[in-house]
Amino acid sequence: MTDTLTLPSPAKLNLFLHITARRADGYHELQTLFQFLDYGDDLHFTSVPGEHGARLAHSLPGVSDADNLILKAAELLADKASGPLPGVVIDIDKRLPMGGGLGGGSSNAATTLLGLNRLWRLNLNIDTLADIGLALGADVPVFVRGHAAFAEGVGEQLTPATPPEDWYLVLKPACEISTREIFCHEGLTRDTPKIKIRPAFEGDASRYRNDCEDVVRKLYPEVNQSLEWLSQFGPARLTGTGACIFGRFPTESAARIIWESKPSGITGFVAKGVNQSPLHQKLTELK
Ligand SMILES: C[C@](O)(CO)[C@H](O)COP(=O)(O)OP(=O)(O)OC[C@H]1O[C@@H](n2ccc(N)nc2=O)[C@H](O)[C@@H]1O
Ligand SMILES: Nc1ncnc2c1ncn2[C@@H]1O[C@H](COP(=O)(O)OP(=O)(O)OP(=O)(O)O)[C@@H](O)[C@H]1O
Questions:
Q1: Which residues sit with their C-beta closer than 6 Å to ligand 2?
Q2: Beta bridge partners of 69
Q3: What is the pTM of this model?
Q4: Distance between CA 1 and CA 12 in Å, rounded?
Q5: Which domain holds residue 138?
Q6: Nearest residue by C-alpha to atom 19 in ligand 2
Q7: Contacts of 267 (CB under 8 A, 6+ apart)
Q8: Which residues are responsible for catalysis (predicted)?
Q9: pLDDT, tens digit, for every residue of 105-134?
Q10: What is the CATH number of the domain that holds 280?
Q11: In the chain, is it the N or the C terminus that has fewer CB atoms within a 10 Å radius of its CB?
Q12: Do 8 and 111 form a contact (C-beta atoms < 8 A)?
């Protein structure tokens, strides 16, 4: 019998995203609120007796294996081990759109770090795994730590937070957006004053926004149109650098009613916001 461990690789939303400065190395200082969704990819880790190290069952369309964050995470983890590691093949059920601002690649990297740490019995602690994750991307540490968080720095200084676990309608306009393109754009607002006191997140939503939204609306009319459509039903916002947008609803049925009436040509899904990552929930159940 084959031995397969299946772990979730959830999406994140940036409930708000403020850009407060640009650093000398070109990276941006952010203040953002991360929450997970109970929706995402699944990674299947299957032991392969007689092999050593990790490999992919299938390549992802449009991503070379050398660039795939799953293999990059596995390689960085293998560097921390001494001696040969058991063979593992990793298969992925990809549901999260790439270039969507939902953190799919970063989440895959984090699920790989936690999954292989367990399968390879490396016993690295969460701080070490979050440090390894940061080398792969600014969004990886929050997925490694697994709690909704207010983030500062480039997104790695995390303070656990408990925003309301509402329902979201997430729409994916028909375009892919490169995070780099948006952060390099000359029109980006980079001087939002820092929030000094940790915000009362349930409070005045109009104080918070996504600073990437104006640039993305101008460059991608598809996103602009989707935001205008969703705004009819309540506040609608971009996540990360897009392309996905979201609206918040108190119940699943309220979100599904709007979902049923969405314009043709837009994909998306309805999901619940959760403050504990489904990955960590699953790992706790396995203990
Ligand atoms: C926009 C967010 O999704 C918000 O959560 C993240 O800040 C992006 O995180 P990510 O996709 O893991 O980004 P990375 O892979 O680290 O960086 C991609 C590119 O985005 C730019 N970048 C990213 C994060 C950041 N704080 N400042 C930046 O300027 C850099 O040009 C970088 O080359
Ligand atoms: N396992 C992976 N899954 C998805 N994308 C990957 C993966 N490995 C590498 N990538 C690359 O990362 C890019 C960004 O993909 P991702 O799904 O993380 O986008 P995103 O949601 O916009 O990210 P973020 O919100 O972190 O900016 C893809 O276009 C792809 O080239």
A1: 60, 63, 67-70, 96, 98-106, 108, 139, 179, 240-241
A2: none
A3: 0.96
A4: 35
A5: 1-287
A6: 99
A7: 97, 171, 172, 174
A8: 12, 139
A9: 999 999 999 999 999 999 999 999 999 999
A10: 3.30.230.10
A11: N
A12: yes
